[in-house]
Amino acid sequence: MAGFSLAWQFLTIFPGWKKDPEVTSILLGRSMAFYPLIGLILGLILWGVRWVFHFILPGPLSDGLLILLLAVFTRALHLDGLADTLDGWGGGKTPEEKLRIMKDHQVGSFGVVGLIFVLGLKFMALQSLPEKVAAQAFLIALVLSRWSMVQLLYRSPYVRREGGLGSAFKENLGKREMVTATAVSLALAFFFFHFSGVLLWLIIGLCTLGLQALAKRMIGGVTGDVLGAGNEINEVLVLVFLAGCFRTF
């Protein structure tokens, strides 16, 4: 369970419930097998809080606070990656320049617009979902988006030459971890939405392959920022897709 505990602490603000495991490069890679499951548990916690909000607050305000808490509970880690990626890809001309901009902690215009767009779409999609499927949609969005990070890193070269934490993940992410994360995400997609869930799982897989190809063209591979961007983009795609499937007229 050390890998699960490490994944929980890395992807959320919450501490582990056991003694912190010794962080090794091997454990970092193995922890990624649990990413979809972490997404499910995080989603259950957040939706429980939203359920309480819904009794005392209007629906739009409850959904707005849900999106805010999602950012807080994940330390805005993925949102930061999205902003850095958009700034780098939009502002740099060469792969080297794009990587340099992505490493800059200041947020530029591309990042700001991207954050507004993504957060706004999440809110509108949640508002568009019927209440009877909103919880399942939110949960599977967090599951599949975190699976997409495993898929991205497994299939792409890591391009930061200076190494660091990201390279430790990459070097120790093996086929077993990829297969485990893929199987869990597919099983949960089917559990929540049956064959529509399988179709959604395929769509997210294909969109992630498209993002992988774009990242390779832009900077030659992926960084931690690109993984965060992939998570945010796929969260939005899941919610928008399901809002379209269950739209009411």
List keywords for this structure.
mainly alpha; single chain; 11 helices; about 250 residues
Word description of this protein:
- It contains eleven helices and no strands.
- It has 249 residues and is mainly alpha-helical.
- It is 80% helix and 0% strand.
At a glance:
This protein has 249 residues and is mostly helical.
Integer average pLDDT: 93
Specify the helix fraction band: over 70%
Distance between the termini: 47 Å
Task: Compute the number of strand runs.
Answer: 0
> What string gives the helices and strands in order?
HHHHHHHHHHH
Going by helix content, strand content and strand pairing, the class is mainly alpha
How would a textbook summarize the main sheet?
none
**How would the global form be characterised?**
globular
Radius of gyration: 18 Å
Task: Tell me the β content.
Answer: under 5%
| Stretches with pLDDT under 50, minimum 5 residues | none
Task: Spell out the blueprint of helices and strands.
Blueprint (H helix, E strand, L loop, with lengths): L1 H10 L13 H7 L3 H22 L2 H15 L3 H15 L3 H9 L5 H20 L2 H25 L9 H8 L2 H45 L4 H22 L4
Helix pairs in contact: 1-2, 2-9, 3-4, 3-8, 4-7, 5-6, 5-7, 5-11, 7-11, 8-10, 8-11, 10-11
